[in-house]
Amino acid sequence: MFELVTLLLLLSMLITLYRFLKGPTLGDRIVAFDVMNIMGVSLLVLLALYFQRSLYLDIALVFGLIGFLGTTIFGRYIEKGI
Amino acid sequence: MIAYLGYIFIFLGTLAFLISAIGLVRMPDIYTRMHVGTKSTTMGTLLVILGTICIEPSWAWKLILLAIFILLTNPLSSSVIARASHTDGATLESDELKEMQK
Questions:
Q1: What residues does each domain of chain B span?
Q2: Closest CA in chain B for residue A7
Q3: Do the Cβ atoms of A28 and A19 come closer than 8 Å?
């Protein structure tokens, strides 16, 4: 069951990576980056369940925080430049 | 019994992620892509976290914290991206209001 769910999640990350590489404007790439960050948080929760370690949940929290900061900073870069 | 319910929740959440990824490829312009990329992934993450709470109830506090964090930050990043691409001059693929105003 875990293998099936993890494969589905990796498949959707791969489809999102196609939009990240192809996207015509910078905003499309940032949207794909945000979606891949959230999928990574969910993948870390699944890994914590698979290896039975609750330490991975802390890593998921910090990863989500860093991803949110990245999205915000790139949005600000589009809006006002450096 | 409740563990099977958790597996069903995790499977539905992953299905929401897959639908979000397919929509991200198929949608025509950036606003619809942002819509499908933010709302559906919030649903998927919350379903995965709910399923994990059903399977391992002793981790519930950390998972509830993670869910509140996702619920706070995900609409905020969506709003930031939308405002930035509106400032950048992105347009809709078919803008019926502008065609009516011509």
A1: 2-87
A2: B14
A3: yes
